[in-house]
């Protein structure tokens, strides 16, 4: 082997080791858990699901360690819908700061090993949702800090401000399957009846995501819209 060939071979090996090391560092850094995570409780964290993750079958698809605590109430936020998700075929849910409003949902205790999974489910790394640590009230009037996700593209007009359901824009309408998932999750959690009835009345676009309908057993969930 010539001196030039030896140098080229050495350079290739060095490049390989550098790339390999960077790859390992990148994988490791993706799972670093922030030490100051307010919703952290030991090796777990508290999560507030107000959308499809109110339903046990749904959250366990990507977060199998989730254990239900019970109903949670988020004050001074409203539930709304905006943009579009291919997975469900309609607008996903979000929470929007709104004085005097309330959002009901499900509180979960989840292993920190699933933190990256739930961030991935919510599209945090793609800039679709961002995480926030929020004070959520339990039925016994105690407060807990929980992780929740808000759409980066928040709706400006409250859903209830539209004069009639036929005035609700397409990008503000969830799919039928998604709305059924919310209703079933709320019923499963024991959320107050008036809130469940409001969910049932939300304008949807009629789209049925057949795979999710079957996986989550949603076909018989009744809606009012």
UniProtKB/TrEMBL annotation:
CDD domains: GGCT_like. The active site is at 122 (proton acceptor). Pfam families: AIG2_2. Its EC number is 4.3.2.9. The keyword Signal applies. InterPro entries: G-Glutamylcylcotransferase, GGCT-like, GGCT-like_sf. It comes from the Eukaryota. Keywords: Lyase, Signal, Transferase. GO terms for molecular function: gamma-glutamylcyclotransferase activity; transferase activity. Residues 1-30 form the signal peptide. It is an enzyme of class 4 (lyase). Substrate binds at residues 47-52, 178. The keyword Protein biosynthesis does not apply. This is gamma-glutamylcyclotransferase. It comes from Ceratitis capitata (Mediterranean fruit fly).
């Amino acid at each position: 082997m010539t001196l030039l060939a030896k140098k080229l071979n050495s350079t290739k090996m060095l490049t390989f080791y550098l790339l390999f090391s960077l790859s390992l560092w990148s994988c490791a850094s993706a799972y670093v858990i922030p030490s100051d995570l307010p919703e952290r409780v030991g090796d777990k964290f508290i999560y507030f699901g107000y959308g499809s993750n109110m339903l046990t079958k749904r959250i366990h698809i990507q977060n199998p360690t989730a254990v239900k605590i019970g109903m949670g109430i988020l004050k001074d936020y409203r539930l709304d819908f905006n943009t579009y998700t291919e997975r469900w075929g309609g607008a996903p849910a979000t929470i929007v700061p709104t004085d005097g409003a309330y959002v009901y949902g499900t509180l979960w205790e989840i292993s920190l090993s699933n933190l990256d999974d739930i961030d991935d489910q919510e599209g945090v790394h793609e800039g679709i949702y961002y995480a926030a640590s929020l004070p959520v009230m339990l039925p016994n009037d105690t407060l807990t800090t929980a992780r929740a996700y808000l759409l980066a593209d928040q709706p400006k007009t409250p859903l209830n401000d539209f004069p009639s359901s036929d005035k609700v824009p397409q990008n503000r309408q969830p799919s039928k399957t998604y709305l059924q998932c919310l209703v079933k999750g709320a019923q499963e959690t024991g959320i107050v009846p008036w809130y469940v009835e409001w969910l049932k009345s939300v304008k949807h676009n009629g789209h049925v995501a057949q795979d999710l309908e079957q996986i989550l057993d949603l076909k018989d969930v009744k809606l009012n819209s």
